[in-house]
Amino acid sequence: MCDAIISPPSILIPTNLQISNLSFKPSIRTRYQNVHASANQNHPNRWSLQGMTALVTGGTRGIGRAIVEELAGHGAIIHTCARNESELNSCLKGWLDEGLKITGSVCDVSSPLDRKKLMNDVSCVFDGKLYILVNNVGTNIRKPMVDLTAEEFSTLMSTNFESVFHICQLAHPLLKASTTGSIVFTSSVSAFVSLKSMTLQGATKGAINQLTKNLACEWAKDNIRSNAVAPWYIKTSMVEQVLSNKEYVEEVLHCTPLGRLGDPNEVSSLVAFLCMPASSYITGQIICVDGGMSVSGFYPRHG
Ligand SMILES: NC(=O)c1ccc[n+]([C@@H]2O[C@H](COP(=O)([O-])OP(=O)(O)OC[C@H]3O[C@@H](n4cnc5c(N)ncnc54)[C@H](OP(=O)(O)O)[C@@H]3O)[C@@H](O)[C@H]2O)c1
C-alpha cells in the first residue's frame, strides 16, 4: 500500500524527426527511431524537468538536499530517503511549506531489505515510472589501508557501492517504463587522483565510475542514460570535521586552482543539467566538479 500517491503529469515527447526516407533494416530503424524519439533538438522543454519523477537518495543534507531542491525547482516530483526520521520529516515539512512536491522514506541504503522497501515506495508513489535516479548517498572512513578493519571495509562497500548497484537493478523496470530515464551517480575526485587515507573510499568511487560507463552501454537500448558527477571538497556536514582544521584547509586550497571550496548547489546544477532533455546525447560521462583540482598536475601552490 502507498500512503500518498502523487500522479505526475505525462511528459510529451514529440517524435518530430523525419527519418522515413532512410532505408535501414527494420531492427536498426526501430532502434534509431527509439533513440531519437527523446533525443531531438526541438524538445519543447529542453531546459526543464517539468513533471518528471525522481528518486534522490540522501536528500536531507549537503549535496543530496541541494539536488532535491534543484530538481524540484526545475519542476521534477521528488522522492528522497535518509536514515534519520525526524530530520527527514522536518525537511519534508519545510519543502511542503515552499510548495515543492517531495515525499520521503526512512531508509538505510546499506540494507538490502530497506532498499527493496524504498523502491516499493517509489513505484507506488510514482505509479511505476521513474525518469530520474540520483544515487547520491556515500560515506567515508579516513584511515591508512592497513588500519581498515573488515567491518569498516564492509560498511564502505555496502554504503557506497553495493547500495547503488542494487538500487539500479531495482530501479531498472521503472526507468525503462518512463521511456527516457536518466541515472546520475555521485562519485568523487578520489576516483581520479590519490587522496591520503582514502584508498578504499576511492576504490568504491572508482567502481561507481565503471558502473556509470557500463550502464550507459547496457541500458542505452532502454533509452536510459547514465552519468556521474565527481566533487572535490564541497561544504557539507560530511566534511565539516576535517575542514575545521585550518592548516588542512590551506593545503586543500593550495591544490585547487580556483582557490576555494565548493558549494552543494555547484554540484546540483550539473546534476539537473544531466537529467534534462538538453543533455540527451550525453551518457557514460563522469564530470568533475572540483575547481580544477583533478587537472592541476604540477601546480602545487594555488592562491
Ligand atoms: N562533501 C564533499 O566534499 C564530497 C566530496 C566528494 C564526494 N562527495 C559525495 O557526495 C555524496 C553526498 O555527500 P555529502 O557531503 O552531501 O554528505 P552529507 O552532508 O553527510 O549528507 C549525506 C546525506 O545522505 C544521507 N545518508 C547518509 N548515509 C545514508 C544511508 N546509509 N542511507 C540513507 N541515507 C544516508 C544523510 O542522511 P542520514 O544521515 O539521516 O541518513 C544525508 O541526507 C556522497 O556520495 C559523498 O561521497 C562529497
Q: Can you put this structure into words, describing what you see?
A:
- The N and C termini lie far apart (56 Å).
- Mean pLDDT is 88; it is low at 4-40.
- The protein has a 7-stranded parallel beta sheet, with helices on both faces.
- α2 (62-73) crosses α8 (265-275), α4 runs parallel beside α5 (150-178) and α5 packs parallel to α6.
- The chain is of the alpha/beta class.
- The protein is built from 8 helices and 7 strands, in the order αβαβαβαβαβαβααβ.
- It is 40% helix and 13% strand.
- It has helices at 26-37, 62-73, 85-97, 112-125, 150-178, 199-218, 246-254, 265-275; strands spanning 53-57, 77-82, 102-106, 132-135, 181-186, 224-231, 286-289.
- NADP nicotinamide-adenine-dinucleotide phosphate is lined by residues 58-64, 81-84, 87, 107-110, 136-139, 159, 186, 188, 231, 233-234, 236-239.
- GO terms for molecular function: oxidoreductase activity, acting on the CH-OH group of donors, NAD or NADP as acceptor.
Ligand kinds: NADP nicotinamide-adenine-dinucleotide phosphate
Protein structure class: alpha/beta
Strand order of the largest sheet: 3-2-1-4-5-6-7
The N- to C-terminal Cα distance equals 56 Å
Strand content: 5-15%
Helicity level: 25-40%
Keywords: NADP, Oxidoreductase
Pfam families: adh_short_C2 (PF13561)
GO molecular function, one term: oxidoreductase activity, acting on the CH-OH group of donors, NAD or NADP as acceptor
InterPro entries: NAD(P)-bd_dom_sf, SDR_fam, TR
